[in-house]
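Contributing new records

If you add data, match the layout below exactly. Sequence lines come first and carry their own label; structure lines follow with theirs. Keep one chain per record. Anything else will be rejected by the validation script.
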Amino acid sequence: MSMQKAALFIDGANLFYTQRHLGWQIDFSRLMLYFTNRYTVVSARYYVPSPDPPSEDQVAFNRVLITHGFEIISKPVKKIVNRDTGEIIMKGNLDIELAVDAMLTEHQFEVFILFSGDSDFLPLIMAMQMKGKTVSVFSTRGISARELYSGSDIDFHDISLMAVEMSQSQSGGSSADLDYLNARLPEPGERFTGSVLSVKAYGIFLVNPYHVKCLLPLSFLGVTERIADLPSIVRMGDLFDVSVFAVDISHDVPQITVKLSDRHMSEELERRVRALY
């Protein structure tokens, strides 16, 4: 039985205060794994205001998110000066951007997953439900709007009860940042076997031993049949024997592009496409 398609929308500012309230930090590699074990994750977006220029800590954190399959949507923090007191107030909000993106992409997913405790998202939640989407909200009672967890029609998950699944401390204090900094980049032609991290229409992102962003493009699958909906034929338990085609170090997080080397997997994907269409 195929898994439902899900999209993650994370209110980064709200999640920051949630983590501070909890007293522990989320391990985003484990968070992504939590959802990929349950759904076909078609997108995972992290919305966060960012200082301009971003701090070193922010750049490092962004690397962690990108490495584990998250797309970052950000805009500069605004500095507002109180004319009476001279106090500088930092303001940044991406609620509108999150809501617009969710509405524009709703045809791609069946499950709408929101990380936020902000009641401003109630109209968006209602809109998703009216479109027939399953809605799951992840936040924490006590700092979340009561409407988000008191309604019987909202699947609310209290993050405070999920430390075993999501916290950094439960994974031995591992840091994806350190993994990234210490990782060796591969040479073109090197081969490895990667598992599925996430699937997009244009390709498959793979877990890899180099701790970098790794894309297996649709065009490198060795499939002659036309694939109209790649997420529908790739399974989260699939393993891909690939060879490194290119290494790009021009971005904050290095990216490698790989080609499928396993003829049997290409044939299996062909079979799935024919069975689907």
